[in-house]
Amino acid sequence: MSDYIVLIKQVPDISQITDNAFNPETGTLIRGRLQNVINELDTEALAFAHQMKKLGGDGNDRIICLTMGPPMAEEVLHYALSRSADIAILLTDRALGGADTAATANPLAYAIRKIEREILNRSRDYYIITGMQSVDGDTAQVPAQIAEELDIGCVSYLTEVAFEGGRFAFNRIISGGSQVVAVKKLPAVLTVAKYEYPLYASFSATRRANRTKIIQWGASDIHATQIGAKGSKTQVIRIFPPGKTTRKCRQVKDAQELANVIFENYYRDVSSSARGAASATNYILPGRRSRNFERNFEGLERDNQNFTMLADKMHELGLEDFYEIDEESMSGLIDAFVDQFGKKGIEDMIEGMKQFNPAYQGDVWVVAEYGEGAIHPATLELIGKARELADSLEVKAGVVLAGHGLEDLSRRLIAYGADNIYYIEHELLGHFDPLPFRKAVADLVSEYWPQIVLFAATPAGRVLAPMVSYRLKCGLTADCTSLDIRDNTKKGQVAILLQTRPALGGNVMATITSINSRSQMATARPGVMKKVIPDESRTGSVFRHEIDLTDADLCMDVQKYEVSSGMVNFEVEVIVSGGKGLQNRDNYEDLINSLCTILQQKLGTNVEKGASRAAVERGYIGRAHQVGQTGTAVGPKLYLALGISGAIQHMIGVANTETIIAINSDPNAPIFKMCDYYLIGNVEEIIPQLVKGLGA
Amino acid sequence: MVVGAGPAGLACAISAKRKDPQLEICVIDKGSDPGNHNLSGAVLEPDAARGLIDVLKENWQDDELFIDVFNRAVERDDILFFLGKKCKLNIGPLIRFAGMCKLPIGNMRHDGDYIVSISRLAKLLGREARRLGIEVLFGFPAEDIILSDDGSKAMGVKLVDQGLDKEGNKQPNYSAGEIIEADVIVLAEGCDGLVTERFIEKALLKRKTNQLYSIGVKEVIKVSEEQYERFGDNRVVHALGYPVWTPVLGPGMFGGGLMYSYGDNCIAVGMIVGLDWKEFDFNPQDALTHFKNHPFVNQFINDGKVIETGAKMIPEGGFYAIPRDSETNSIGKGNVIIIGDGAGLVNMLKIKGLHNAIHSGLIAGEVIAETIKVPVTAAQRFTEIIDHSITMKEMKQAGTFRQTIAKFGNMAGFPLSVFGGLLPLFRTEPDYRTMRKKKYKYKGNREFDKDTFTALAHTEHREDQPSHLTILDSNICSTKCKPVFREPCITFCPAGVYENIMGVLKPANPSNCLHCKTCQRKCPFDNIRWTVPEGGGGPRYTLM
Hints:
The complex is a heterodimer of chains A (696) and B (544). Chain A is α/β, with parallel strands linked by helices. Helices cover 31% and strands 25% of the residues of chain A. In chain A, the strands form six sheets. In chain A, strands 11-5-4-1-6-10-7-8-9-26 form a ten-stranded mixed beta sheet, sandwiched between helices. In chain A, helix 4 crosses helix 13 (461-471), helix 7 (255-267) crosses helix 17 and helix 14 packs parallel to helix 17 (683-695). Classes of the chains: A alpha/beta (696), B alpha+beta (544).
């Protein structure tokens, strides 16, 4: 039967993160302060592989664990060996360091080729299994890019496996539901989104692991083509702490006032808040700026100041254009700033200022996602963003729509701000399979070469985008919360896309730019960008494209498709959580449900139910709803904590929330010191009043 | 096979390996990392430190961790007596005087000892043990010991079953606990060890008197530079009296507070209270709070930031509570040796047990190497040697101290103990029987913030496993305990594990458990049992 190559990664243990783990000035993680552990999803991937081996194997299948990292990453291989791995391989080399996802996927793919050649005796009968993403990078890009490099399928977001009729059937998460699929061809990459039964170390395997020699490969052993910082397609230009809001701790006197607070805070525009969605003034191309020499759209604030000082001085010297700079004025500039920037620095700045042409050409594109006959809301948000970017770049906003029988949707996309619709029609594009989609989208992009391609960071988008970008040798940034056009004048770059995203579980923000790429690509977090108000009178063009696809282009057989109802989705704007103050299960259900319903109606948004550990422990609701350190960490716009005392473990899990509102009968409840608004009172009495207040 | 990677177990493994490098030695521990489950004051006598250094290595002077562990010798040693919320009396000179008169109570001194973090000491020893080729494996909790059919010999230890859900059903990742066979088994589990107590029962070992316990709750507090400088970098303070004992009016508990310099502007503050307290509404953490609020203590820690917390029991029964075989008198039996706190080797006159733990480990290690051809003689040989050692001499000297106080209270007990070994051994009740319908005099209005306390102990367990704490008969809680004592486990458990949910007392939050086991020794109806949870569960001490 098949063998299993499990990819694992060593990551800092961000669950134990404390404030002093960061350098307050740069926002960078002080690595020594955190323990290194195996990425949790990779432990689940290993258990998943173990389960597959148990279900489908004859006992001779091997589990081969591969990791890339510094020498100490050996520890995670030790973890795997003391559980179920048979062979452990460490890919370690200084030359491999500093890599982005593409330059990580490439050497891993080459190492997999070497495993296939040397360990699996050229058998192609194997699975590559890994956690969906790592907690430090959070990109979910590497698995899909490995699949792209190896030109094999990628079946992502698996949660369960069964073995029926000689074949594995996998449950996987898709937007708004789940499906059961089979893999059509081996090898294939499988990514595990959730498999909560990590293996236990056995005493005997641990002793054996201590004696097993780990295979170690360096860069020269695998002949990878794209490694390290040099092989990367993106670079981090800035890391900074997220703008943490300080909690207001304001007391509210009654339910009516609380209802008003809820409305106010839900509709409040929080452009500069913790969500990092900040989008400052729209970019203006250098040639259109009001003053000569004006360079105030730099990526780094410090550069803005420096260029302003330089421009002021140039004006002061009576300069109006670059050709007027002679030896005398140049030496005047050098005298003024040599201490600050050095002579070379000043020359570079002036040289850069002469550059007016944008670094990239082409339009701004959005790759649309649809499901259930409707455009995914995230796509509409992205069109709004693309519209804004295209306007400031003075180019067009295009939307790629790939699918079957979707032509009617074009009008809607245009109403939301698109100029051009590129429609690819094929019946094999009827449901999402990454292989034909990535082929369709990549072919189209390479025909037109837009300067920016945006994808929604949905389950489908997070597989499609990395495959497309890798295929086209372009950089990709995952899960952006802010996208802005800026200059990097010092390097002579005009109008490049700054892609800002949270990293390390939201503990830091990183701004990233594409390098060595013909197009700048990013996925953006749903719910962060703003839709525009649709304008049905807008006009645009629709370009129809053909593509050749056959069954052989698919990587999975969809056997079953389910729209979910019972699934917990904490990626919502409002979460209503109940604690032990609700006294019993009936109360929890009545009160929380009634509040959720009214909020859903009045705010027109999805509301999810949450619970404290104490409430889950008492059986008020299932564990999937538990919010907090041991449950799920959430970051909604509004978080209502009802009858929750506010144990620190719970509050850590809601730290990214914009507004926390608490109701508790105990005036000394710790939560009152960690929330924005609170009301002292018995939840059983207050909630019905609040429901009434909201309904009025 | 050594069960428990604390100072005793590791000292044992190291000394055995030193003596006979051919021995295959394995140390298992339930914690997830070295030192995670070790908590003590702690002061370590130089003799024991020297004993350790002897077996470790010659060039320890160059080792950072080594120096870090052993760089704080006591230079200032205060013994204070708190008369009430504000007053204090320095009784250090009195104790010193007693020492000069060779009175047993004079042992309560610590000059020249090292202040160590036992958690870091265990980490150091674990590293050294591994360096010597000893297998030290963490995350493997033992739950039982398997004896041969005739009971003369132990065959191995059984690890816990893992991968059960809350109701005890097998999950897909269920793995049955393995049985680890070994020629010699050393039980070094620390106070009230699960396997140790099961072995005592199975092998019919006897204690001359009940084991008595106390609980220590401790916080490491980061203070300002100025405060730390004022306190001193090499100082230990022990305080008797308020808030656990005041003359005549009560309360009349055994115990006291402590403050040790810990380096890096940290002061360890702790409170030790004998489990034979009578007040049903008493929580040792309340006593810790009062201690911290006493002006003498407060001046040094005011505005400080608590960075780590923990709780653990101490076996106080002393010499007569050491479990021994009724025929041969051995501590352990056949090929099973019990060492350290697990055997109860704490000297209550000195309030110290770490040195004895290490000594007993070192002796056991040598004995194992010596008797490996005939492992069943190990326990007896170990006992012969330790009974003639300085360890047992001082244990004997302190023999009846704790029982005397338990019997007569602090007021009469302390003076009486002057007679030391001359006194008879007074019979004492087990700790769980002492509770009365009596209230703690200094009970405040505010509940201690146990959530933060457990958060700072970094305790963690997988949530979906069967509770490792069991209430034997919950009827007793509601019909007998609640009306009289109002279910005191809810109050005294330092981690807030117990709660009354809709009229039923439950170990509602087993994942908060700090593995101190106070509940199974202090439940007034002896109605709680502690077993070991899945591997890696429990606190994660790094500084304790």
